[in-house]
Known about the structure:
This protein is an alpha+beta fold. The chain has helices spanning 18-21, 40-45, 47-64, 121-129, 131-141, 206-214, 225-228; strands spanning 7-12, 28-33, 36-38, 68-74, 77-84, 143-146, 148-151, 154-161, 175-179, 195-198, 218-220, 238-243, 248-253. It folds into 2 domains: 7-84, no CATH class; 100-253, 3-Layer(bba) Sandwich (Glucose Oxidase, domain 1), CATH 3.50.30.10. The longest helix is centred in the N-terminal third of the chain and has 18 residues, at 47-64. The radius of gyration is 19 Å and the shape is globular. Mean pLDDT is 78; it is low at 92-115 and 232-236.
Amino acid sequence: xxxxxxEVIVEGVLGHPGALLAGxxxxxxxxxxxxxxxxxxxxxxxxxLVTSVAxxxxxxxxxxxDDVIEWAAGDGGIWLLQSLRSAPVPAPVPAAPVPAAAVPAAAVPxxxxxxxxxxxxxxxxxxxEWMPLLAATVLGRGEHVPGRPAAPxxxxxRLVACRPHERPAGGTADAILLVGQPLPALAPLLFSARGxxxxxxxxxxxxxxxxxxxxVPMVIGCHPETVxxxxxxxxxxxxxxxxxxxxxxxxxxxxxxVVP
Length: 260
């Protein structure tokens, strides 16, 4: 942005970036602020190159308003491949936790808890209108698991595990998707999902780019199973809230009182 101390996150790999874009490789990252770079990528590519990439990102921001770039370095130069403007981030949720009684059952559908998931466009819209309250409740009362930011915004919903080329149990229309790697084959699910948690991968992956373009919050490098156990999508279900701007994830069992 216009702030002199704005932070830029730079990701990269040595060699062909195909594995990173496809979601199979995490690559290395560095944070650049006020011309100073820190992180594993500086040791891999050198601090001067990383700060030059950050400067290029700043030039694109000022010229086009795009906040994400794809870049390559070679033959003594840095090349801008493409740029992208993330979808607008909705208004932030209330800072204070919301009492469970303030969230109606219809707004918090969950597997195995007796609540009915939205089945029409009107019901889905109504549920999404309540999502900021649900997110505030889960973030305020749930167990937190760290991750890394990939797509900005905040969302909450049922935690549903997804695998490429398989239909997730319970659908994805009101869900926070839990995936192993951010593979491109999962992109169609983002059109109806509320958010994404990926155990591995990079913010430069194709799936993260799709999430940013659709305004779907996404966190990577997060392992909810440290709280939920190895099978978080059964036995009553779990609710998840994701903050794609900070990388924070909070989890609550669907029987912990949020769902009557």
